[in-house]
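Repro case for the chain-ordering regression, as requested:
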Amino acid sequence: MSETAARDRPDVPTTLPAGTPVRAALASTRNAWADFAAIYTPFTWIVGWLGRIVAQVIFFALIGNLLGSQEQVRYLYIGAAVTATAMEALLVVATTTRERYSGTLPLLVASPTRLWPVFLGRSVQWIPSGVATGAVALFVIGPLFGVTFALGPGVAAFGILVLVAVSTYGYALALAALVLRFMRLRNWATNLSYTLMMLVCGVTVPTAFWPVWVQAIGQVFPLTHALDAIRHLEAGDATAAQVWADVGLSVVTALGWYVIGAASLERLASSGRRDGSIEFAD
Amino acid sequence: MTTSTLSSRAGEVVTGNVRGVAAGVSRELRELRRSPDQLMALVTAPLLTLVFLAIMLHANRHDLAPYAVLAPALLVLWQMALQTSGDTVESERENGSLEALVATPSPLPAVIGGRIAAVTVVSMLGFGESWLVAGLVFGVWVQVFHPAAMVAIVLVTGYATACSALVLSALFVTTRSARTLQNVLTYPFYILGGVIVPVALLPMWIQPLSRLVFLSWSSDLMRDALTPAPIEAMWGRLGMVLLLGTVALVVGHLLVKRALDRSRRMGSIGHV
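-- result from build under test --
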């Protein structure tokens, strides 16, 4: 290839030196946006996806009506709306593992760049999409179900919604690293994780409802802590200490998942190189 | 055309449809053994039972436990039919085998119908699963006060589910946006179908629309079968499920046929 042709290739708009993880992650985000544009048009996103998520949130809020309690309506609505953001972040598993189905995983493993930054950027499309769906449900449709925020707490709740997406992204990355080894678990892992979160993260009932060992499982999900903070902000009884404690726990658990995810991906790459277990397609 | 030619032609049509359905059933059962992903709804159903039941028990509404047990089973029934109706066409298209399938003498609606029917029968396991999990985990053993009626309602609901899924598969034949359509037809449909919240508790303006969804009749009937009081107007309501299912069957058959005719004319079966 000539030098001119090499220079003409589209490059990542960054001055970061080639080969650094940040540059690889940034370059990988191009795939994410292209993927998103290929899956959705504005119409199919609004009608097909956002409409579905809003209906899902309303479905749970209506159970509060069945119970005859406005408090339950609000509790279930907030839980389902925030979990919708987390649910979308779980789509990282699908987009990450698709690289193996597409036959691009061995090429990624063979390239000089490490694997984890590539996958770190590969699925970022789900973060803004998840935040948007959760925000519309929480702040736009929410008032119809008695879910309201004062301005300051509302801004803070939006920030925490972003945290929900980013932190669950870390969990999903770790899950994706596992699923890349056991591809048959692809859909099961996502669906079971989502339903487990519904069960143990204080989404539909307070975590205290469950035995202590179930509560302990709930603590490892960043969603549990972030959701608690959003509930306090909505109720208007949040103290700064309480919110920061929840945010801190959410960040710490998320960091743990990011580290597990990155380490697992590197292990996958190194063991794959060693024993040739990364085939072109499953 | 003589009477004997007509009856011979009708016989061929019936035989072709029966063979198509049988082939669809056989193919789907093999597929289910090979692709556990298709049984996903049955795997998440026990957890969903716990989710719904926890809500009721936490609110001290033990009387609503039957609602929590029925809902996941109905979700499984619809999810699996929806997934099959969409994925059947989509996977054949991706595989490049849709054209070949259409070119065979067996009518495509019969083959798709057979596949959906097989999945619907398997998805009925969700009822037993939810009931068992509620009992084993929370000690809530929901009593079926009208077992014969319950069996009849489940069977008729299965029939209506399979027929409705046929209509959807017709839409999937003509659209590239099968996944979008699958998304749209989940939770909005669960609300309209009164899967966990009875239609009577929905806003008044939405109730007439709900009554066009067979699941709204089925879910009300099933909940009634779990209460000691006699089921009011059971035959009429069961007839509505049957009627809505049959309307869907006729419409679905016609839509699949029309979609195929158009795709054949346009040469666009594999790439709508």
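Ordering looks correct now. Chain B touches chain A through 34 residues (CB under 8 Å).
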